[in-house]
Amino acid sequence: MSLPPTVPPIPSLPPEVKKASERFFLASKALSHDRSLWAPRMFASLNLFLWHLDGFKQDGDPIPLFIKEFNKASDFLEALLHNKVCQSQFTSKENNVITDKEFEEFVYGLFSDVWVDMSDDIYFDETYNFTVERLEKSGVNPDKLFKDKIVMDGGCGSGKFSASIAKLGAKKVIGLDLGKKGLEFAKKQALKVPYGDKIEYMHGSLLEIPLEDNSVDMVWSNGVIHHTLDYEGCIKEFSRVIKPGGSLFLYVNGRFGLFELLQDTIRRSNSDIPKHLFQHYIKTLGVNSGRLYWLMDCLYAPYEYKSSDEVIRLLEKYSFLNIKQLTRGVASDQIEQVTTKLPYANVKYGESQLKYLATLG
Q1: CA-CA distances (angstroms) from residue 138 to 123, 133, 180, 261, 327?
Q2: Which among 8, 89, 162, 170 counts the fewest CB atoms within 10 Å?
Q3: Cα end-to-end span (Å), the chain
Q4: What is the pTM for the complete model shown?
């Protein structure tokens, strides 16, 4: 169900990497006929993905380790093909043909189900602190960025960034999203804080934003449009609703490395396993709400990857000027590791997180 990446991994990745990841994909798909094998497949996928947390901390070349871990996971799955106990008892038939409406429902439904589990300390405090640190380290004063502005949080989800923007001095924040469950949660959260009365939540699509032309001072779009059906259409709509001289904050994922190949392979492999089942499986392991959101985003949400050059060309096409790339973040951010040139960070993460501030001409 995942969108295919529009750009390949960085050229430095050898063909053996793709071969190892494809072997895992084929081994997982060979088991998709039997629902009784969903459990070991979920285990294999999660175990493989979490490996990178320690594997990528090592300073040596990650490629041999990456290949080794994929092959170990493939060995495990291929061994299950010989298990005849449950086969034919719990048959499953995958249907990958989905309509545009079903695609949108899958995406916002995925995130809505995750956001409602988010604790207040992560929702309010961590999001605010991380937003401030990321902007300040990239040379942007967050108070000046938002002060007295009307800001649309495009694809606001749970509203956690809407809350942070309001706290940072925005005059009004309009949180827009397709997920009704996430919006209901966001409205309840806004009642908990004194600045919540500055936030208005609206149901709608980024491809048909229910706002007038030139009606907001800024659009904030944090990790959203690469999940949509029309990447360019979202940028076009942003340019329509922003006032001339207004600004856009855009975060998307760029040309990818080992990490994104890991994500993409597991997403494709798990396309027949219900997302609710995988989410329940992760929750039973006792992970916190922040990590639950991150895991479901990484392992189930569809992505469209574009290179930095492609994104800049799209921004320029729709009259955005003074495009500044923000290249810093908190210590755990991929872009921070790439920018500070940690060993093999570019191999691990490619262009990683692309974040831009731009002005509408």
Answers
A1: 23, 9, 34, 27, 6
A2: 89
A3: 37
A4: 0.87
